[in-house]
Amino acid sequence: EAQRNIYRLLNTAFGLVHLTAHSSLVCPLSLGGSLGLRPEPPVNFPYLHYDATLPFHCSAILATALDTVTVPYRLCSSPVSMVHLADMLSFCGKKVVTAGATIPFPLAPGQSLPDSLMQFGGATPWTPLSACGEPSGTRCFAQSVVLRGIDRACHSQLTPGTPPPSSLHACTTGEEVLAQYLQQQQPRVMSSSHLLLTPYRVAPPYPHLFSSCSPQGMVLDGSPKGAAVESIPVFGALCSSSSLHQTLEALARDLTKLDLRRWASFMDAGVEHDDVAELLQELQSLAQCYHAGDSLVD
């Protein structure tokens, strides 16, 4: 187990550094709690029951998030290109981003989109999926957010003449609701938001992970585990976050504790001590890009 963790650490560190050198944007995806030497417990989803030891479960969840957060540049009708999205998120050398998702988005029957968003309060609405720790208390520099699977009838349900209970309820479209919500949560962050009516399909062979959802992914009380859910709404995001400063520095610290002479098989693969020294320098330089500096709109 110790050897596997060390190899995972080395491969993660080398992978991040080499990918950032040759890519416009890099996003680690993991249900683990840490990228470092000591694994932390897997993340928790309030409305999912999954087994983190089963690749079938983990890959399904990560595929759901990946399919959602990449929607902005995959749709023919979208004005956003992959290059535009990468440029927005990776400014000032911040080529590594984090991913997060709420799976499923907790919309109850008869509930409006503003009501659902307000139930999060000021907390970050999505579960982190990049093994960079909890996003609370960290700073977001730029983000791309996608909400999919919310019917137009749920965007606003106020009857004419009813005073809106919040500024979100005063919005006339779902796109306005989502943009207003992001502006309220993080007013100094450059945000790109997309609302997609099409839900995410979770019919077989997708694993049975949903504990309290209707067939359309609505959150229910007392629904039996393993209910036949056909599709779900998903809330996902890519974020350039200051949490990466701590994560990348922690990777560098873990590497300094290793004596590679004890791991001959890794050295036999062609890795030299100078490579590791250069790797440490690159990791520390990359970490400094995420020091709580200015955002795009400062």
From TrEMBL:
<dbReference type="InterPro" id="IPR049942">
    <property type="entry name" value="DML1/Misato"/>
</dbReference>
<dbReference type="GO" id="GO:0005739">
    <property type="term" value="C:mitochondrion"/>
</dbReference>
<dbReference type="GO" id="GO:0007005">
    <property type="term" value="P:mitochondrion organization"/>
</dbReference>
<protein>
    <recommendedName>
        <fullName>Misato mitochondrial distribution and morphology regulator 1</fullName>
    </recommendedName>
</protein>
